[in-house]
Amino acid sequence: MAATTGVVSTLALRGSLVGQLDSQLIAASDRSLRAPDRSTEGSTPPAASQLPADALPPGLNVPGQGAGTINLFVHDGTARSGYIDSAGDFQTLTTAQVTALEAIRADGRPHSVELGTLGAYRVVASTTSDGDLVVTGLSTEQATKTVREYMAVEAAVAAAGILLALVVGRMLVRRELRPLDRVAATATRVSELPLDRGEVALPERVDPVDTDAGTEVGQVGAALNRLLGRVEHALAARQESETQVRQFVADASHELRTPLASIRGYAELVRHLPGDLPPDAVRAMGRVESEALRMTALVEDMLLLARLDAGRPLGTDEVDLAALAVDAVADAHAAGPDHVWLLDLPGSGGATDSDDPDDLDDDDEQAACRPSAVVVGDDHRLQQVLVNLLSNARVHTPAGTTVRTTVRADGATVTVRIADDGPGIPAALRGRLFQRFTRGNAARSPGAGSTGLGLAIVHAVVTAHGGTIEVDPDAVGTALTVTLPAAP
Ligand SMILES: Nc1ncnc2c1ncn2[C@@H]1O[C@H](COP(=O)(O)OP(=O)(O)OP(=O)(O)O)[C@@H](O)[C@H]1O
Ligand SMILES: [Mg+2]
Questions:
Q1: What's the rounded mean pLDDT across residues 443-469?
Q2: Which of 57, 89, 217, 453 is deepest in the core (most CB within 10 A)?
Q3: Are the C-beta atoms of 325 and 407 separated by less than 8 Å?
Q4: What would the DSSP string read from start to end of 174-187?
């Protein structure tokens, strides 16, 4: 826009200046045409003239001709020419300049011509009644200079205008977009809330000043508030139905405990009845008992998970994980004598082979000088974590597998790593290892009575204690590390 205005106004100014110059040129040409040829009368040019009197064109030496005027007078094939310089003196024209002037069409109308060192000129050529050619010209230098100055001023004004428009525009846009920034900040805060689990409070809302339906930004703010309201409502409904399902599982598990205990009790009673039972009945009663035991374990696991899901408060005992590990490894050794069980405690200076019972007994004596591996939590649940991990290392690996249990404390955290050099966790399970009912191929752990709840319970207990559990992806075999905050 600024460029168009500039070009149009410059062209208009140039047209007007050229028009003005042309009027002056016509007047100068008229004066030249009316000038008598004084050279024949023996007149002399002014003292400052570079021209001899007989070379001075008559149209130059007349009152009214200004600096920059050029004149050519051709009479009987003889040309006389010259121009008035800026000091008012008469000067000669070069042959090339004269030739250029002679080439102008003698139609009495202004034409443009380049005269070498003299620059651009507007010239009028006319033929007198005597047949003489008179060419008069005026320099366009002043007009060109005026146009150039005008263009420079115009460019400076346009640049300043554009700069000002940019600065003011930016300020206005920023001010107008500030409410949008606030709406975006609300959306960002909501996006950072943990919405995927548990009870969800969604207190974030766009401020009422940014929800004015009269503005576009206000409409966005109001729409976001409506969306947040609906999401909050949906999350609350989801949470309620989850709670109901959890409560149902907890109640069902709890209710199943008593009849299961009765089944086990009656099965045992039948086995101990006086008199011999037929062998098939003895086998059937044995199966009833073992299946009832398996179901009891499953029901206990489900009840525990339902309670952990419900966020039931855990015990806050001071639990020494090193002592727990000693007991858990000793039990694992008793249950799986075909495996090699190693125990590495803080400050013990290396792994102890639990095959040597004395080593484990000595451990109590060393406990006093060991760095503390004490955490705050629920004694039974933490023991269950170690038991589940060690039982996996026993059940899901072949005989002869070495299982190393390492306990470490660094003041802020206590870690327990249970690593075996068995076949490793099946690749298909890795992404969902801690989900409920995730279990591998039953053929690999025959007779294990596996339910796939062991690691889900480990994960839930560790998380409820503010800790983490990780699988080492580079380990040979299987290595799981539990990290818990150390007791203050
Ligand atoms: N040390 C291990 N070596 C090889 N595979 C393992 C090991 N630990 C776990 N797994 C695999 O991960 C699966 C899930 O383990 P998880 O303890 O959750 O269930 P489970 O042992 O099958 O059953 P549960 O522990 O409830 O009796 C197992 O079925 C097994 O395939
Ligand atoms: Mg298990």
A1: 83
A2: 57
A3: yes
A4: HHHHHHHHHHHHHH
3-state secondary structure of 373: coil
Which of residues 46 and 416 earns the better pLDDT score? 416
Give residue limits of the domains in the chain: 2-146, 218-307, 315-485
**Cα(first)–Cα(last) distance of the chain, in Å?**
73
* 434 C-beta closer than 6 A to ligand 1: no
Handedness of CA 46, 51, 52, 58 (dihedral sign): negative
Looking at 227-321, which runs of residues are DSSP E strands?
317-320
Please tell me if the CB atom of residue 253 comes closer than 6 angstroms to any atom of ligand 1.
no
Name the fold adopted by 218-307.
Helix Hairpins (1.10.287)
SS (H, E, C) 20-45: HHHHHHHHHHHHHHHCCCHHHHCCCC
| Token pair belonging to 60 | 């130059």
- DSSP 8-state class, residue 75: E
Tell how far the Cα of 457 is from the centroid of ligand 2, in angstroms: 9
Q: Are strands 413-420 and 478-485 parallel, antiparallel or unpaired?
A: antiparallel
The answer on pLDDT for 357 being more than 50 is no
Return the CATH class of domain 2-146. alpha beta
b/e sequence 453-464, b meaning 16+ C-beta within 10 Å = bbbbbbbbbbeb
CB-neighbour burial class of residue 259 (10 A; exposed 0-12, middle 13-18, buried 19+):
exposed
pLDDT, tens digit, 9 for 90 and up, residues 116-159 = 888 899 999 998 888 888 999 998 888 899 999 999 998 999 89
Counting ligand 1 atoms within 8 A of each CB, the residue from 305, 396, 430, 457 with the most, and so the one to mutate, is: 396
CATH architecture observed for domain 315-485: 2-Layer Sandwich (3.30)
Whose Cα sits closest to atom 19 in ligand 1? Answer: 452
Q: State the CB neighbour count (10 A cutoff) for residue 375.
A: 23
Phi and psi dihedrals of 158, rounded to 5?
A: -65, -45
**Whether the predicted pLDDT of 49 surpasses 80:** no
Q: Angle at which helices 321-335 and 357-366 pack, to 10 degrees?
A: 170
Whether the predicted pLDDT of 418 surpasses 60: yes
3-state DSSP assignment of residue 399: coil
Is residue 6 lining ligand 1, measured as CB closer than 6 Å? no
> If 0-12 CB within 10 Å is exposed, 13-18 middle and 19+ buried, where does residue 373 land?
buried
Ligand 1 near 336 CB (within 6 A) = no
